[in-house]
Design brief:
This protein is mainly α and 87 residues long. Helices cover 72% and strands 0% of the residues. Helix 1 crosses helix 2. The radius of gyration is 23 Å and the shape is elongated.
Length: 87
């Protein structure tokens, strides 16, 4: 794990220290780690929501055909082959 140092103004440093004490974190680093992890998760979920909304706005739903499933399976096989290096 890599260490990152940050400089905070006194007011923010005091705020972080309060959060550490109130939240039961072992250190300021753990508190900041949690904030970053939560931000990462929020952005991940926002991306899923955005993708779902785009899908809903893309037009009326149509039934999946046998050909559609065949295409999906083919795409999955291609992705798996890229990951494993097997054709």
């Amino acid at each position: 794990m890599e260490t990152v140092s940050i400089a905070l103004p006194d007011a923010l440093k005091a705020f972080v220290q309060e959060q550490v004490e109130e939240g039961g974190y072992p250190s300021a680093g753990e508190y900041i780690h949690r904030l970053i992890r939560e931000d990462h998760e929020r952005k991940y979920h926002d991306n899923i929501d955005r993708t779902l909304l785009q899908s809903l706005d893309s037009g009326p739903a149509t039934p999946l055909t046998a050909s559609d499933w065949q295409d999906i399976r083919g795409q999955i096989r291609q992705r798996a082959a890229k990951r494993t290096g097997k054709p």
